[in-house]
Amino acid sequence: MNDERIGIKTPEFVTLQFQLAGLGSRSAAFIIDQLILMVVNISVLIVLAILFTRDIDFFAFAGMDSLILGLAILGLFIVNTGYFVIMEYFSGGKTIGKRILGIRAIQENGHSLTLLSSFIRNFLRVIDSLPAGYFLGIVLVFFHSKHKRIGDLVAGTIVVHERQTKRQNKQTPIEKEIARKGLAKEDLVIEEWVLRSIGQKDWKLIETYSNRLTQLSENERSELTKKVANLLLPKFGLEVSGKSNLELENTLLVLYLILSEEWAYEL
What we know:
Elements: E1 5-9, E2 15-19, H1 23-53, H2 66-90, H3 96-101, E3 103-107, H4 115-123, H5 125-128, H6 135-143, H7 150-155, E4 157-161, H8 173-181, H9 192-196, H10 200-213, H11 218-232, H12 245-263
Antiparallel strand pairs: 1-2, 3-4
Helix pairs in contact: 1-2, 2-4, 10-11, 10-12, 11-12
């Protein structure tokens, strides 16, 4: 099961290979997330008990106003569902549990989750948990060829293992250049929705630029930097005019670092 791979053809006509996450890794990630939510839920209930009953005894909830109790239950449902929706959307398909286990949820076309697909797959956890203990979801993940539960089937998503970036014993020329310049991903703040709009062609352009950069003369380097900057930087909402060639080059190299986390995979 753990060796199962799936080939996904992206809208850019690039085939990516993913290793499907099976029942074991998905269950372990879910348990970690549930433990986190359990701590949150218990904390919220204790606070409510203190505020409205002046008592932290469990049976104190029996004397709580029915409206307040109903709102509390609704609020906990929103928090528990919202945790998965928000984490998966803003963290590249990864909750804390998924991040620890090295898995992530993606769309079937290989792209990151949209807010809608994240909402659908997580809202339908209610059905996957029927009749109890997540039984239906477990059965479907175990028997489905792509390890999908109902939420995945409706939202058009799959859960895969994180692909590892290529590791080399020696730094590449561009890695040495980036290190020499002292550049880091933190030098630029790019909105998540902007990163989601970047496609395979954009990554290939900046990857090719970065790999060729150290092989060029100063004039060629300057000319290529201006051309690539004019093509790419506006897509990130970054200004080109008024910046020196060195600033443009450094910006492009930082973008290379940021995008390589998503795109520079060993297939």
